[in-house]
Write a structure and sequence with these properties.
mainly alpha
């Protein structure tokens, strides 16, 4: 496809960043656009695996301490999330239960709740409401020091960064540029990829085995850097 056709389909405004990053080389601009799509696809796959792993690990942690229907009970009247501090958490659970309706099971409820919900399990109020047990999800995390605290707030902020790139990809925003500049860079994608690997390792999970056959992020980043 000629660049003029490609630009017309994708829009000049959308393609301008790619064209500027490639110094006006239209062939490279189209290649960069396609490589960004491949990188986004690979990154979203890795994030999806991480999300499922995270929610299952949190659920397993809570099942032993809070019971087999801990989410439903937590959002019910008198439950641990039935208070003004955790109102939105309770609302999210009850809305998911209503959506599932007759198909409700605890496992389906776990799958119904999104990444943002599970991230907020490490917010201070939700973390306290669940009995401050959820750092057991990351048994291999480093020991905290006076300088570096690897506590629930740290995990919450790390998950916020993953949620950010997840949302960028979901809204078809590129991840192959320097932040706010039409300059080709894989630093943003690589940093977030390494963050996911780090958190998986803290969970005691072998990321190489988990991503076997799925993970080509470094290869695509290298292709982008070499373009």
């Amino acid at each position: 496809m000629r660049y003029t056709e490609f630009e017309q389909i994708m829009s000049p405004a959308r393609m301008s960043r790619y064209l500027n990053a490639c110094e006006g080389n239209t062939k490279k601009a189209m290649t960069l656009y396609r490589l960004n799509l491949k990188l986004s696809q690979e990154m979203f796959t890795v994030i999806s695996c991480f999300e499922v792993t995270l929610r299952n690990s949190i659920n397993n942690c809570c099942l032993g301490k809070l019971g087999p229907d801990w989410l439903q009970n937590a959002a019910a009247s008198g439950g641990i999330f039935d208070n003004p501090n955790c109102r939105l958490t309770s609302v999210n659970i009850n809305e998911a239960i209503s959506k599932l309706h007759a198909n409700y099971t605890h496992s389906k409820l776990v799958a119904e709740l999104g990444f943002g919900f599970w991230r907020y399990m490490f917010a201070q109020r939700q973390y306290s409401a669940t009995g401050r047990i959820l750092l057991a999800t990351f048994p291999a995390r480093p020991t905290s020091t006076p300088i570096a605290q690897y506590n629930n707030t740290y995990v919450f902020n790390q998950l916020a960064d993953i949620n950010d790139i997840r949302n960028r990809i979901a809204h078809h925003e590129p991840i192959c540029f320097q932040n706010g500049h039409p300059i080709k860079s894989t630093a943003f994608a690589r940093q977030h990829y390494l963050l996911i690997i780090k958190l998986l390792q803290w969970m005691g999970i072998n990321e190489i085995s988990l991503f076997y056959g799925l993970d080509h992020i470094n290869d695509i980043c290298n292709d982008i850097d070499a373009l």
